[in-house]
Amino acid sequence: MNELSIGQPRIETIEISTAKVFEIEMATLRLDVIHPVVSGNKWYKLREYLNDARSKNKKAIVTFGGAYSNHVISTAAACQIFKFQSIGIIRGEKPVHLSPTLSEAQQMGMRLFFVGRTDFRMRQLPQDIFTQFSANDLYFINEGGYGIKGKEGAQTIITENDVKKYTHICAAVGTGTMLAGLIQAAAPHQQAVGISVLKNNFSIEQEIEQLLPQKSINYHIFYDYHFGGYAKYNTELLRFMNNWYGQTGIPSDFVYTGKMFYGVNHLLQKQFFKAGSKVLVIHSGGLQGNRSLTKGTLIF
Ligand SMILES: *Cc1c(COP(=O)(O)O)cnc(C)c1O
């Protein structure tokens, strides 16, 4: 696959015995296969922002994140595709060695600026930026791509693929931007099911509602599959990810999709899905995260 082009996602059936026993049809929409770096939902979330920036003649995209942010590295790659300059405002002191994520983002042309936690929270930009760019040339994208344009892009995850026959559409929830798009684009016979990867982030439903034109009831978020919080994991999760790969051939990551597949599999066992349901699980990408694990921990 060419690094400067985006490929097509595909739907794969998930053949597992529990699904057969409970008469559930399961499939996954593999967004992880569309690009080696702007993997999965990040491409969909970024696209509308970048189109907007282009129509406004902006020159550089500024975004925010931590040292292992999928969103930051995806933004760097997407900016290469769109031919924008990119600027990453990174939380915390500049480390002696850049994380693999940041070092690749830098190789893709992203300029990195490190800011202290308070400044980061206040979105206080380092003055150095303005020696290189005029304020008018800059286009800002929130941390994680949260916002209306991100949601609009996420809607196309299901409008551009033929998913009408499914009764449930399941996805991992970080900022909730993707789920908001799925909720809005879902047909009346479809329910969106979110698996939260953060601990006790119950305000997420409010944040999702803020992105929707009207109150929605066709979604449900589960909060029991965070494994201790964002990017936390234990051996049970890693063992599940290996087994899941063994059974289905689907790789996952411990930050998002591993927890999501774990949750969906558990919901299947608890018979949350009624017999006859057709469940589509969005593989939102993000395999980058696994790079921080010791080699050999995962079998894929
Ligand atoms: C960022 C990310 C998510 C979370 O998407 P939100 O729109 O922030 O909820 C889910 N899965 C993967 C793989 C991601 O990289």
Tell me about this structure:
Helix 4 links the parallel strand 4 (85-91) and strand 5. The chain has 300 residues and is an alpha/beta fold. The strands form two sheets. It has a six-stranded mixed sheet with strand order 1-2-10-7-8-9. Helix 3 packs parallel to helix 4 and helix 10 crosses helix 11. The radius of gyration is 19 Å and the shape is globular. The chain has helices at 17-21, 41-55, 70-82, 100-107, 117-122, 129-132, 148-159, 177-185, 204-211, 235-248, 257-269, and strands at residues 10-13, 25-30, 60-65, 85-91, 110-115, 138-141, 168-173, 191-196, 219-222, 278-283. 36% of the residues lie in helices and 18% in strands. The model has no long low-confidence stretch (mean pLDDT 95). The structure holds pyridoxal-5'-phosphate.
Query: Regions with pLDDT < 50 over 5+ consecutive residues?
Result: none
Shape: globular
Termini gap: 19 Å
Strand order in the sheet with the most strands: 1-2-10-7-8-9
Residue share in β-strands? 15-25%
Number of strands: 10
Largest sheet data = 6 strands, mixed
| Oligomer designation | single chain
List the secondary-structure elements in sequence, H or E: EHEHEHEHEHHEHEHEHEHHE
